[in-house]
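Task 17 of the worksheet. Students: predict the tertiary structure of the chain below and write it out as structure tokens. Keep your answer in the requested format; marks are given for formatting as well as content.
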Amino acid sequence: MPLSRQASIVAAVLPPRLHFPFALSASRWHGRLVSMSGGNGPLTELLMRDLWLQELTSHGAFPILWRLHGRDVLDRYLPQGPVLYFTIHLAMSEIPLRVVTEIQYPVPIPVADPGRLVEGERYKVLGMNVFIPALAASSHSLARMRTLLLQGNSIACLADRDHLSGSFSANPLRLAGRLGVPVIFTWGELAPDGVIDVAFEPAPHPMCESEEAIEKNLRFLRELHGRILRSVGLDGPVAESSSQSPVAERVRLSTAASSRVAEKPVAD
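Model answer:
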């Protein structure tokens, strides 16, 4: 049965307050089943968690348990002007946007897979009945990001092509550096108590003042990506030519368009 159909049944049977704990439990059991068949259960659980939350979001709002780390970072940078939020797929990349929306801070414009957008270019925030302006990922994304940043809008985008490749783009950082826009790294991680720890942290070099600074920023993200992979039993990025589980392939296809932000060089 397709996951979308399963989510429809769950949404019809369970009250919204149970949707988040159900997503955690369902992804955990899916991981266990994959482990029993010789696959990578922890990785499957991680990927299925994102898919369940996305599918349940299409059926309405539901509470998500989170803890915010780095409110002081937001308070320090946001009053100064636009920022570039930069994250990676593996780090529950949609949760920070939810947190910023919930605490009623200025909401950035996300660069998103066109398949996730509705009513033109509007994006539904994870687990909320809130639709915000968004930018469809394409080969022209950098140029449009430049325009939006110059207009004073903050942007949220992904550094990597998909969950597993480990290929990171420096172009959004170069753009931020040329425009004098600070970069904030953000990510979410599920804690043992079932609450998502959501972090906002300035990039090691938030102003991206040189290629060396940009490389150090990307190194931070590679280390975060590697730590998450090690936590699910992988030593490094998964090559595109290697065999992947159906779950991993589905997630790869659903997020592939987000890589298009990196395809063209930054123009002055």
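Marker's comment: Residues 239-244, 251-260 have pLDDT under 50 and may be disordered. The chain has nine helices and ten strands.
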